[in-house]
Amino acid sequence: MYPLIRFTGEVLKNRRKPMTLDETHISTHRCWPWDLDPWMELNNGRTLTLYDLGRVPFIIRAGMDKTLARLNWRFTVAGVSVRYRRRITAFEKVTISTRIAGWDDRFFYFDQSIWRKDGECANQVLVRSALVGPNGIASPEAFVREHGFTGERPVLPDWIKNWVDAESTRPWPPEKSPLD
Question: How far is CA 84 from the centre of its chain?
């Protein structure tokens, strides 16, 4: 089940803390027993949900939600790459860092990471998000212009460009359906 109470708390806590698109949102969270998998560590699916709890407040703090509403556009996740490195166990408090790494002609790229109390990075996610409007996928550049962002467009790091290139070679739909 989606943690609506946690989600609401994050939105309320962060709605009056404005920031710009080129800043980093930092949030703290706790790994509760209902976040655990059978091996008593943070479930990989719940990890992605915790990243939602970092990304949505970023969007609100940066005022992107207002621009999205005005344009009748929405963010949708169009791809994810996760790197897991350290366990997170019950009741452990973690910090999530969320920033926009950049954008290209079709997508925004959110770079997020979860940090343990000992200073070690537990995992990192790259989230490719599309803007979807009444006419389909919308341009990130058009959004940024409408949003009034006057900063420099970030240059995508090579590791993100390489991931984008690799994803473009992946067949879609998958080669074999289990229903065949």
Answer: 15
pLDDT at 1: 66
* Beta carbons of 153 and 105 less than 8 angstroms apart: no
Q: Is 35 left (phi over 0), alpha (psi -120 to 50) or beta?
A: alpha
Q: How far is CA 156 from CA 46, 63, 107, 119, in A?
A: 27, 22, 11, 26
Cβ(106)–Cβ(137) below 8 Å? yes
- The pTM for the full model equals 0.93
Share of the chain above pLDDT 70, in %: 99
| Interval 91-107: pLDDT, tens | 999 999 999 999 999 99
Over the range 76-97, which residues count as b (16 or more CB within 10 Å of their CB) and which as e?
A: eebeeeeeeeeebeeebebbbb
- Listed by start position, the domains of the chain span 4-169
Classify domain 4-169 at the CATH topology level: Thiol Ester Dehydrase; Chain A (3.10.129)
The 10s digit of each residue's pLDDT in 107-119 is: 999 999 999 999 9
